[in-house]
Design a protein that fits this description.
- The chain is mostly helical.
- Helix content is 67%, strand content 9%.
- It contains nine helices and three strands, in the order H-H-H-H-H-H-H-H-E-E-H-E.
- Strand 1 (244-253) and strand 2 (256-265) form a beta hairpin.
Length: 310
Amino acid sequence: MSRRKGLPAASDVHNHALKARAAWISIASNATLIVFKLVVGILSGSIGIISEALHSGSDLIASIIALVSVRRAARPPDPSHRYGHEKVENVSGVIEGLLIFGAAIVIVYEAVTKLIDGVHLEHVELGIAVMLASAATNLAVSRGYLYPIARRTDSAALEADAAHLLTDVYTSAGIAAGLVLVKVTGLELFDPVLAICVAVLIMWTGWRLIDRSTRVLLDEALPDDELELIGEKVAEHRGQLIVGYHRLRSRRAGSKRHIDLHVTVPDDMTVAQAHDVAEHISADIAELLPNSDTLVHVEPRSHDPRDDRP
């Protein structure tokens, strides 16, 4: 049976150096963009550009959180954390989602203030250039680098960081469009109005990140297609090694998959043979789903006649 398309290779899942390098690149790009946006925002007086600098500030914090989380998640199990530290990545996803919400609230506040007090913009062309450059840079880092590595390594922290940067692409493009409208029409109100529209988009992205991460923290089961693959793999042993299986359960922690199930075996099978069967099934599932930990409970056929019931 072939592995489901999109599942990472086992070597990539454990490549913690690759994860850390991706986080460092994100940190460097965000720090550079913050400086440019702040300078141009102050020179132009554009609340849109200044709000983008604040957004990039939240991106920078998110990238630092991603770096810390992937390093922490790479630590092996210890006496206080017998199941490892992988859920740190999901916690970082929640924090990044909250940061996105915070950035959006600040943007809305500043934009409304500008609408009330009035807007005066200068160096509009420079602002447009910086916003377009920011959008291009974040698109390259997010779509071209972070997302592919997040998929290869199955990293929730890097996926959250990539999503965070992708919102910056949309917001930068939106602010640039607003400045173009200001330049063409002379109506400076387009700047704060589009900043508010951008903030709504940011909030939606933040909600998606929080929702996805909290599902893992609440031990949501693996996707149906992965459970189906596990069931098919275990069922391949029916007749030769096992009579059937039941009570298949699963959850995730970061990139780690935790699976447990009960299998029924013939009554005359020895303890040593049953142990070998359990180890064999665990190894097959580990080959099918990288970075998975499977616990197989063995029961005699006469003890539990159920078959293939979760």
